[in-house]
Write a sequence for this structure.
């Protein structure tokens, strides 16, 4: 059961990393213009992308090459840490969205 949770964490982290990367590549208007909000979000996205790849690599290593007796407390702490990381990034993104212009006109 513990190894299945590690595998799930690994898959989720890498799936989120792929989605964030693809979303970052499609930022801006067709002419290449970036709004103030998008310019502010790019560093946050790359930090979140790197964190997801790091979490995914650690979960992958622990799943395949770790000790056969991984403690459930360690896996629970990994899930909680990943949830806290996602919540922090979401809170920062919401703060950026309130502060900067998103380019929607009328």
């Amino acid at each position: 059961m513990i190894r299945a949770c590690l595998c799930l964490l690994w898959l989720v982290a890498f799936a989120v990393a792929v989605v964030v990367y693809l979303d970052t590549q499609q930022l801006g208007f067709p002419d290449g213009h970036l709004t103030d909000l998008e310019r502010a979000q790019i560093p946050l996205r790359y930090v979140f992308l790197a964190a997801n790849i790091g979490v995914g690599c650690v979960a992958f290593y622990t799943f395949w090459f770790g000790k056969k007796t991984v403690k459930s407390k360690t896996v629970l702490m990994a899930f909680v840490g990943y949830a806290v990381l996602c919540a922090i990034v979401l809170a920062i993104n919401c703060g950026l969205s309130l502060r900067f212009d998103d380019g929607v006109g009328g």
In short: The chain has three helices and no strands. The radius of gyration is 17 Å.
